[in-house]
């Protein structure tokens, strides 16, 4: 039976990936320090719904090499999704952010290198971010029909965009991104880097700091006003979680050609929406307007980010399948059915 180790497996992306691989009959090992508010609920969801005999959980930190290393040594595949995820927190505590994201990633790589033999060389997927491209100030932007758009890149941003780490979070994730790439080059590890755009879906406990789409959806449901920084015309390509896990699946299946590669992944131009578009979808779902509070742009906020996913499509044949209205509808209905849980998680997040 193949096995996958998922660091951050009690998080949003990690728990969905665990769910998928339990469903496929794999052995799944979740490795998580449980620092995410809502992590226990995600784990309960996993063990309630699936054959939990195949599910193991270690509550530990990716900074703890000695606990992590033997688990990496046993895994056929590693999804490295653990880490500090909020730009704001990285600015408040850059050292903590560095240790979780940069050192934590190096620990995963070193553990894989130490366990490498002629027959063991795990596939390692790394959850990087578009934030490593920075503010992209040199890229021309046009305002068209109330949407910011790239003047010269109608297909979105490709992997050729120069790196420009902004914020301690950008630096620590970018460090991991480059280490992943280099360990493929220098040591022949089978790493794959995914520079992810905005991922959203059910079981995402979004806050203003992280997971803005889920934050908007949950706020709309709970009848809370929304803060809009800037004019609301900023555009993001959003990707439903199932489509991200489909990409992981294809990359694992085609690890022979994907190893050592970097891919941008997001909803792409066909799933690019402005904040105001999203608010409009949510207003339709809840049947009444959402009160909006406008504030200044935040430093470093991109007017537009849209991924060019051509390389991923050409390499493994991946295409996103869930459109924005469908995905946001699924998230809204899930939130409505889990209102009490969301209130409890929000209470803890703001405690
Ligand atoms: N969600 C997105 O839109 C998005 C976009 C780009 C990149 N990413 C990256 O994907 C990864 C997963 O994101 P997510 O949205 O699932 O976040 P999440 O916060 O839901 O999950 C992260 C998990 O890691 C755990 N964790 C945090 N620090 C840890 C540590 N030091 N040791 C062990 N566990 C630790 C948390 O408890 C949590 O369960 C992150 O690394 C993030 O930077 C996410």
Notable features of this structure?
binds nicotinamide-adenine-dinucleotide, 15 strands, 13 helices, 7-stranded parallel sheet, Rossmann fold, alpha/beta, 351 residues, globular
Q: Kindly report the average pLDDT value.
A: 95
Give the ligands present: nicotinamide-adenine-dinucleotide
CATH class: Alpha Beta
- Order of secondary-structure elements: EHEHEHEHHEEEHEEHEEHHEEHEEHHH
Task: Write the topology of this structure.
Elements lengths: L2 E5 L4 H12 L3 E6 L6 H11 L5 E5 L5 H10 L2 E4 L6 H6 L1 H22 L7 E7 L11 E4 L2 E4 L16 H21 L2 E7 L1 E3 L11 H10 L4 E4 L5 E6 H13 L1 H4 L3 E4 L6 E3 H12 L5 E4 L8 E2 L4 H7 L7 H14 L1 H11 L2
Parallel strand pairs: 1-2, 1-4, 2-3, 4-5, 5-8, 8-12, 9-11, 10-14, 11-15
Antiparallel strand pairs: 6-7, 11-13
Helix pairs in contact: 1-2, 1-8, 3-5, 5-6, 7-10, 7-12, 10-12
The protein binds nicotinamide-adenine-dinucleotide (NAD).
The site of nicotinamide-adenine-dinucleotide has 29 residues, from α1, α5, β5 and β9.
Overall description:
By secondary structure, the protein is α/β, with parallel strands linked by helices. The protein has one domain: NAD(P)-binding Rossmann-like Domain (Rossmann fold, 3-Layer(aba) Sandwich). 44% of the residues lie in helices and 19% in strands. The chain has 13 helices and 15 strands. It has helices spanning 12-23, 39-49, 65-74, 87-92, 94-115, 167-187, 212-221, 241-253, 255-258, 275-286, 310-316, 324-337, 339-349, and strands spanning 3-7, 27-32, 55-59, 77-80, 123-129, 141-144, 147-150, 190-196, 198-200, 226-229, 235-240, 262-265, 272-274, 292-295, 304-305. The strands form four sheets. Strands 3-2-1-4-5-8-12 form a seven-stranded parallel β-sheet, with helices on both faces. Helix 2 links the parallel strand 2 and strand 3. Helix 1 packs parallel to helix 2 and helix 7 (212-221) packs across helix 12 (324-337). The radius of gyration is 19 Å and the shape is globular. The model has no long low-confidence stretch (mean pLDDT 95). The structure holds nicotinamide-adenine-dinucleotide. Nicotinamide-adenine-dinucleotide (NAD) binds at residues 8, 10-14, 32-36, 39, 61-63, 81-85, 100, 104, 127, 129, 173, 196, 198-199, 211.
């Amino acid at each position: 039976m193949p096995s996958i180790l998922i660091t951050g497996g009690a998080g949003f992306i990690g728990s969905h990936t665990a769910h998928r691989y339990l469903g496929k009959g794999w052995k799944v090992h979740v490795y998580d320090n449980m620092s995410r508010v809502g992590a226990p609920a995600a784990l309960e969801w996993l063990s309630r719904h699936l054959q939990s005999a195949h599910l193991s959980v270690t509550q530990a930190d990716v900074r703890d090499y000695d606990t992590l290393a033997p688990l990496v040594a046993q895994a056929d595949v590693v999804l490295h999704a653990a880490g500090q995820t909020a730009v704001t927190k990285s600015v408040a505590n850059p050292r903590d952010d560095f240790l979780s994201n940069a050192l934590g990633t190096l620990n995963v790589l070193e553990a894989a290198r130490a366990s490498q033999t002629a027959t063991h060389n795990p596939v390692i997927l790394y959850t990087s971010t578009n934030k490593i491209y920075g503010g992209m100030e040199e890229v021309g932007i046009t305002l068209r029909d109330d949407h910011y758009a790239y003047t010269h890149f109608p297909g979105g941003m490709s992997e050729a965009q120069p790196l420009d780490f902004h914020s301690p979070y950008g630096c620590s994730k970018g460090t991991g991104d480059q280490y992943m790439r280099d360990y493929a080059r220098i040591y022949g590890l089978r790493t794959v880097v995914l520079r992810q755009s905005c991922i959203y879906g059910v079981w995402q406990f979004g806050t203003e700091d992280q997971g803005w789409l889920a934050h908007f959806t949950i706020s709309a449901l709970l009848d809370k006003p929304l803060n809009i920084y800037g004019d609301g015309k900023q555009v993001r390509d959003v990707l439903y979680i199932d489509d991200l896990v489909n990409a992981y699946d294809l990359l694992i299946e085609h690890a022979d050609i994907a190893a050592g590669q970097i891919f941008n992944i997001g909803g792409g131009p066909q799933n690019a929406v402005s904040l105001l578009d999203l608010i409009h979808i949510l207003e339709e779902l809840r049947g009444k307007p959402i009160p909006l509070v406008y504030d200044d742009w935040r430093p470093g906020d991109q007017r537009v980010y849209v991924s060019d996913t051509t390389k991923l499509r050409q390499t493994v044949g991946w295409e996103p399948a869930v459109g924005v209205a469908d995905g946001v509808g699924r998230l809204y209905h899930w939130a409505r059915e889990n209102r009490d849980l969301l209130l409890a998680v929000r209470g803890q997040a703001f405690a």
